[in-house]
Amino acid sequence: MTRRGVLIGCGFFARNHMLAWRDLPDVTIVAVCDLDPAKAAAFSEEFGARAYGDAAQMLKEVRPDFADIATTVSSHRSLVELAAGHGCAVICQKPFAENLIDADAMVDACKHAGVELLIHENFRWQAPIRRIGELIDSGAIGQPQFLRLNFRHAFDIYANQPYLAQVEDLALSDVGLHLFDVARRLFGEVIRISCETQRLNPNVTGQDAFLAQMRHANGAVASVECSFFSHYAPDRFVQTLALVEGDEGSIELGDGYRLWVHRQGECLEEVVEPPVPSWGARPWNLVQDSVIAFQQHVLDVLAGRAKPQPSGADNLETLRLTFAAVQSARNGGRQVKLAASGEEPPSA
Ligand SMILES: NC(=O)c1ccc[n+]([C@@H]2O[C@H](COP(=O)([O-])OP(=O)(O)OC[C@H]3O[C@@H](n4cnc5c(N)ncnc54)[C@H](O)[C@@H]3O)[C@@H](O)[C@H]2O)c1
């Protein structure tokens, strides 16, 4: 059975969505939509989908199986509610919502309509992160006790996404939530967090670096570090480096996709670089492959073969954690407790 999808938002990152959908079997993007007619027309011409300027009209006329929302965050709530109202499954890019009230409303709208809601959290679908998850789940390092995630580079992200230069909590809201989602995927819920932010690049408005320290419900601790103004040669963009320790072993994910598993007095090395898609290129292959993997997962969910990873309801907790980090940073790094700790969670 071929699934019929539509894409809403034909901007920078949506091109990865379209190229990945084109590579996957049993799915066709039949229509695309953008407020900017030139962008919709360009995607229509490249991918052979009908072009629209209005999402409501497109959904009404096309009646798709799913809507893939790749717009920026301020439009997410209205578009998710619109798509859910048309009874189709919904995929929404991160950040899922600007605040928890909107995120709750979006989860409710999809629940009420009886449709799936998946959030495009592709970091947890990156090949090295999937491999670390498999190793932890298989018990290779025993009980997890320490996690470090490190995403630090000085790549010019503002060239393709100029709007990022104006985002106040930039590092936390752009990549921080991906890293928090990965931490939750690997180590489970977080019960408290403290966070410091820095504004390093003088040419951007917001805080472009952060350092967060977290305690998980399982007793493990985590350090999540992110900077968009850290200078290395060669630059490490778009890799996340990681260190995971358990009571029986450790996993190191280093530069160049080298992964070491230390256990039983031995160290085994693997190279976990994903393939470069036919339409892709290094260093973007890490991201491009993760988009393909996530979108294949969406098809598995629609076919009833998998549960959403992550669902909107799950991603609400990642958002809650991200807002808790923002709250902590604005209060001089003071610790914030989360719902899983049994105390009142922060609101945003
Ligand atoms: N998962 C990742 O790795 C990753 C990477 C980059 C960007 N993103 C996310 O993707 C989203 C889009 O980012 P981008 O850089 O591609 O932005 P962009 O500005 O290049 O594209 C967004 C497009 O959406 C269109 N749009 C806005 N509101 C619309 C509406 N109501 N109907 C139809 N079209 C509408 C805009 O005209 C624009 O063309 C953001 O939320 C961003 O955080 C995710």
Automatic annotation (TrEMBL):
Show the stretches that span the lipid bilayer.
Answer: none
Q: Pfam families attached here?
A: GFO_IDH_MocA, GFO_IDH_MocA_C3
Annotated ranges, domain Gfo/Idh/MocA-like oxidoreductase N-terminal: 6-117
Q: Which GO terms describe its molecular function?
A: nucleotide binding
Q: Which InterPro entries match?
A: Gfo/Idh/MocA-like_OxRdtase_N, Gfo/Idh/MocA_oxidoreduct, GFO_IDH_MocA-like_dom, NAD(P)-bd_dom_sf
Residue span, GFO/IDH/MocA-like oxidoreductase domain: 130-252
**Signal sequence, start to end:** none
* Name of the protein in its database record: Putative dehydrogenase
